[in-house]
Amino acid sequence: MSYSTVKDVLDYSRKLHEHTRNLYQQLRDQTQRERVDMMLTLLAAHENTLADAMASMQEHTSQKVLQEWHQFEPGSISEALQDARELHPDISLDELVKVALRIDDYLISLYRQILSETTSDDARAVFESLIRLEETEKMRTVRAALSANDW
């Protein structure tokens, strides 16, 4: 396992969210299902919010924390999004939500792993904040999926 800085982790997360947003937007152009299209719009906005949050966090985190090294080897974005291979124009709403939640769970797990090995209080605060943000956004996705039948 190699090491990366907190800044590297935030960059990786931002790029992952941006790439996921782009996948959802591309799929919107291909799908004919109204509810799926609406969920894709919501999911693209969800990913955009998270990408913006990563950029903002990077701006508002001290250089000392951003330059801290942690055991983390960022894989390729395509490896992290391996479940996105299941995305296709005829995807069901349930399948789409499962893919989206697995991406959220991947990042939550990543942040928890780094948090468990972090000794700096400031870095701990950053990763705790990232976990709360991802969990909050994940719950918004679940609520939207549950209310999709009302659309």
TrEMBL record:
Domain of life: Bacteria
Species this chain originates from: Venatoribacter cucullus
Protein name, UniProt field: Uncharacterized protein
Cited InterPro entries: Ferritin-like, Ferritin-like_SF
